[in-house]
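TA notes, week 10

Several of you asked for a full example with nothing omitted. So below is the full record: structure tokens for the whole chain, then the designed sequence directly under it. When grading your own attempts, check the secondary structure regions first.
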């Protein structure tokens, strides 16, 4: 059987650069070498692309890593309508059958890399340009959810040129409330606001990550997550899991820095009725954004068992503690088989796209 040539893309120009590399390590380890021929491509924080020999000793893709000869600069070209990579050091041409971007956050989860790969005519795993962009922008995401009848927390969009007073936000959202950059993940720039002085300081930090910030009503409830796999027409869902944070909320530190930052319960101890409601809304949200491949969807469940969607992550983490693969494992889908299915879905979507007309005659 001919091996499928896979380019695993990691790192990137994002605050989640290190998380991406940790995800890539796990994906690389789970890929069956009898089925896949793996090429690892790392993108530095400055945007330079490199061929990576091994990820074992790498925590960040930087130009300093060149000192240990782990990285070789890459460029790309299009030959007969097909993108290919070129090792600038050896002039070797590297052709791949599919790309597996695991670039969390900006320039990776927001549709940028998906659009670039489409221009190179290289198949890729995961969501389309539009689904990725809409899922990443929390303002657009919430507009789509609201239009689709999917309950979510009230919010107010904040922009530097249209200031809204703290008092106005309190009247609309109550106290405490959250602020978060519209286009960031892993709780980067997210703050729980209790006072006006805190708001003024933390808002400046949130705006350092994006030009749009959401002020969102605080929902007192359990944090539930669920994994989705497949096409928008027929998505499959895992059993849900619950996050019990040992911090004030499920922050970046709780997710990635503090080993005791959170407790993950899979499956989540919920009533059958609530589980069914979460699965129904997860499929509805996945379809509303016309997702392809995979996504993790996060919910709040209140004491009254009301279910509200928090957000969708169209490129969820694959680290040792990431919920997406863990929920599938608990639902009977092993890590290697999950990776295989994601690659197969990406190739199938590419074949579908190739049947579409690109001219009118």
């Amino acid at each position: 059987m001919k091996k499928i040539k896979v380019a695993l893309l990691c790192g990137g120009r994002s605050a989640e650069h290190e998380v991406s590399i940790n995800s890539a390590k796990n994906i690389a380890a789970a890929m069956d070498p009898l089925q896949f021929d793996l090429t690892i491509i790392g993108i530095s924080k400055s945007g330079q692309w490199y061929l990576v020999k091994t990820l074992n000793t790498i925590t960040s893709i930087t130009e300093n890593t060149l000192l240990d000869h782990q990285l070789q600069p890459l460029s790309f070209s299009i030959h007969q309508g097909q993108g290919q990579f070129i090792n600038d050091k050896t002039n070797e041409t590297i052709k791949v059958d599919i790309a597996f971007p695991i670039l969390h956050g900006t320039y990776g989860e927001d549709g940028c890399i998906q659009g670039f790969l489409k221009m190179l005519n290289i198949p890729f795993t995961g969501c389309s340009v539009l689904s990725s962009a809409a899922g990443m922008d929390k303002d657009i995401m919430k507009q789509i959810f609201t239009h689709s009848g999917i309950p979510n927390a009230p919010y107010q969009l904040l922009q530097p040129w249209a200031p809204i007073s703290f008092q106005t936000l309190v009247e609309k959202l109550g106290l405490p409330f959250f602020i978060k950059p519209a286009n960031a993940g892993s709780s980067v720039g997210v703050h729980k606001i209790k006072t006006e002085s805190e708001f003024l300081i933390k808002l400046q930090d949130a705006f350092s990550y994006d030009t749009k910030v959401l002020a969102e009503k605080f929902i007192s409830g359990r944090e539930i997550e669920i994994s989705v796999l497949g096409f928008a027409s027929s998505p499959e869902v895992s059993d849900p899991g619950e996050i019990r944070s040992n911090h004030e909320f499920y922050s970046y530190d709780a997710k990635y820095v503090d080993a005791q930052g959170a407790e993950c319960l899979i499956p989540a101890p919920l009533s059958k009725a609530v589980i069914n409601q979460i699965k129904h809304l997860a499929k509805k949200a996945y379809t509303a954004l016309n997702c392809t491949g995979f996504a993790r969807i996060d919910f709040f469940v209140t004491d009254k068992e009301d279910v509200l969607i928090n957000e969708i992550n169209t490129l969820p983490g694959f680290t040792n503690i990431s919920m997406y693969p863990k929920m599938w494992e608990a639902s009977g889908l092993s890590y290697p088989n999950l990776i295989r299915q994601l690659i197969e879905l990406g190739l199938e979507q590419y074949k579908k796209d190739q049947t579409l007309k690109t001219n009118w005659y």
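The domain at 4-124 is CATH 3.40.50.20 (Rossmann fold). Use that as a sanity check on your answer.
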